[in-house]
UniProtKB/TrEMBL annotation:
Cofactor: Zn(2+)
Stated name of the protein: M20 family metallopeptidase
Domain Peptidase M20 dimerisation stretches: 168-260
PROSITE patterns recorded: ARGE_DAPE_CPG2_1 (PS00758)
CDD domains reported in the protein's UniProt record: M20_CPDG2 (cd03885)
Protein's UniProt keywords contain Nucleotide-binding: no
Record keywords, A-Z: Hydrolase, Metal-binding, Zinc
One of the Pfam families matching this protein, by short name: M20_dimer
Taxonomic placement: Bacteria, Bacillati, Actinomycetota, Actinomycetes, Streptosporangiales
The keyword Hydrolase is annotated on this UniProt entry: yes
Amino acid sequence: MSTSLDVRQMVRDLERLVTCESPSHDVKATMRCADVLTEIAWRITGRRPEVVSRQDRPHLLWRFGGRTTVLLVGHLDTVWPLGTLDRWPFEVDGDLATGPGSFDMKAGLVQALHAVSTLTDLDGVTLLVTTDEELGSPTSRAWIEEQARGARAAFVLEASADGALKVQRKGVSLYEVIVGGRAAHAGLEPHKGVNAAVELAHQILAVQAFERDGTTVTPTVLSGGTTTNTVPAHAGFTVDVRAETVAEQTRVDAAFAALRAHLPGASVEVKGGPNRPPLESSSSAELFARAVRLARQLGLPELRGVAVGGGSDGNFTAGVGVPTLDGMGAVGDHAHAEGEYIVISAMAERAALLAALIDDVRAG
């Protein structure tokens, strides 16, 4: 493995990606950014990707040689709408670079390509880049799982807040609880109605009771009723559930399925379910130990691992049984917040660590 990494070129590549805005909901914009990433990758690696279309949305796949042993996973879409650059341009200030999508996660893509360029043997290395991760990966999930199966390791290029690797991610489940009642005049004969808003209150308290230990159950968006003088006939709410283990995710799912109406005459319907399986600590433990050892050998800062509530495409690779280490991207902070930034000096360090991990895993 070569160790030559041009940090100034990495910053130039990052600037090109950040200044090509790519909000998830705008497919044409993500395609333009995919073209920029393709040009950068061609210059760095001499390889062009396979463009994979899923439901008219493009994703990119670089298969550098042979059957996949190590899968690198990233996304180029961001949460920032077109025009954000007009008020918040890409800027470099000393050892920091900022701009929409710089931290989450365009710097991670740059680091991955430069890491690959240092490897003398690319057999078994595959880079997968999606364009819908910030939407929950609705078109790419099955494809990610398909590409991951059989790999020895998956390294996810998500950002790394303050340098911590993500060794555990909670699984995500999303539910909609729909309540039915019966309308009546709120002043003349409220007793003839079945109040869906009151039933909704009972159901919110019921699902809140599903929480325990590290599992969170959070009612989010509420709706219901028609006019101020009508007993509501319909109401509903959505729920965000985060669970550390598959067993907990399954327990909560069964509890939602068992919900029943509290008021006579009311009805309850539940839609939704698990969206992302958890990335359990057992999926990352061995890879994290390798990373700690290799970081020490490379003279890099001591690594630490964190458990987080947010999900990523690493949940999917772990979910199909592939050892997964997340947070291999940029070092910085403030993902999804204006002012997100990356530490420039850490770009080469993390690229070198990724390259060492790739070689270490392939060596068995």
